[in-house]
Amino acid sequence: MAEQEAPQDFAATLARLEGLVTRLEAGDMSLEASLGAFEEGVRLAREAQQRLDSAELRLQALIEGPDGELVPAAFAAPATSASVAGDTDEEKDW
């Protein structure tokens, strides 16, 4: 199975992951294709989780300003994908 470029946003990542699950559940792929789809699914699931973690940090960084409106506050960047076992040092674009 040829490796595909990662989708650009969370919704596209999730849609691609759902498509892989559907194909795997159908059970009509060869062993090699199934393994490739599973590996891609694991990569996409990790990517989606990192995006969710990053979004959670951004939401937590919001504080109430003096006029009652929410304003962004400084926060530490989340750990890079290299900290996840098995990931490569490729630059992520999100």
TrEMBL record:
<keyword id="KW-0963">Cytoplasm</keyword>
<keyword id="KW-0540">Nuclease</keyword>
<keyword id="KW-0378">Hydrolase</keyword>
<dbReference type="GO" id="GO:0006308">
    <property type="term" value="P:DNA catabolic process"/>
</dbReference>
<dbReference type="Pfam" id="PF02609">
    <property type="entry name" value="Exonuc_VII_S"/>
</dbReference>
<protein>
    <recommendedName>
        <fullName>Exodeoxyribonuclease 7 small subunit</fullName>
        <ecNumber>3.1.11.6</ecNumber>
    </recommendedName>
</protein>
<dbReference type="InterPro" id="IPR003761">
    <property type="entry name" value="Exonuc_VII_S"/>
</dbReference>
<dbReference type="GO" id="GO:0008855">
    <property type="term" value="F:exodeoxyribonuclease VII activity"/>
</dbReference>
<dbReference type="GO" id="GO:0009318">
    <property type="term" value="C:exodeoxyribonuclease VII complex"/>
</dbReference>
<keyword id="KW-0269">Exonuclease</keyword>
<comment type="function">
    <text>Bidirectionally degrades single-stranded DNA into large acid-insoluble oligonucleotides, which are then degraded further into small acid-soluble oligonucleotides.</text>
</comment>
<dbReference type="GO" id="GO:0005829">
    <property type="term" value="C:cytosol"/>
</dbReference>
<comment type="subunit">
    <text>Heterooligomer composed of large and small subunits.</text>
</comment>
<dbReference type="InterPro" id="IPR037004">
    <property type="entry name" value="Exonuc_VII_ssu_sf"/>
</dbReference>
<comment type="similarity">
    <text>Belongs to the XseB family.</text>
</comment>
